Amino acid sequence: MAGATATLVGHPLDTVKTFMQTEQLSGRDKASTVQTAASIARVGPVTFYRGAVPVLAGALLFRSLPFTVYSGTYSALPHSMGESDRVLLSGIAAALGRTIVESPCEALKTQKQVWDRGYLETIRAGHMWQGRPNPEVTK
């Protein structure tokens, strides 16, 4: 619930921020925050929520995965390691697990915000981790 609420409230602001950060890349002129938001609103209010699907889906995993990985790692480590070492290694494993899930969701969200392509198109383009889209996909 908290992840969904945060996405619904914060995603429009994130979209404005992303548009402003990618102005030159997208061929748009520099604009203020208010001008950028007004420009997005002219296209339609749904535009503020471009890329929200992977964020909402990922939020479910982001909230539960670290706890699952932490407890699994903590249980698997030998008791002879000592409490502080087990806690440290379990925390590192939990953070790594979340990063592996969260990074692709964030990259997909940003590509959707900037280029407004379908999610599968973005993945097929082969440029999900780069700023410039594949010209064959954006035609």
- Could you tell me the mean pLDDT? 78
Main pleated sheet: none
- End-to-end Cα distance: 38 Å
State the low-pLDDT regions, or none. 133-139
Principal-axis shape? elongated
Helix content: over 70%
Total of helices: 7
Count of the separate structural domains: 1
Strand content: under 5%
Instruction: Provide the structure class.
Output: mainly alpha
Output the radius of gyration. Answer: 19 Å
User: How many strand units?
Assistant: 0
Order of helices and strands: HHHHHHH
Solcar repeats: 1-76
Pfam families: Mito_carr (PF00153)
GO molecular function: transmembrane transporter activity
Main location: mitochondrion
In short:
By secondary structure, this protein is an all-alpha fold. The protein is built from 7 helices and no strands.
How would you describe what is shown here?
The structure is a single chain. Helices cover 75% and strands 0% of the residues. With 139 residues, it is mostly helical. Residues 133-139 have low confidence and may be disordered.
Descriptive tags:
single chain; 139 residues; mainly alpha; 75% helix; 0% strand; disordered C terminus; repeat; transmembrane
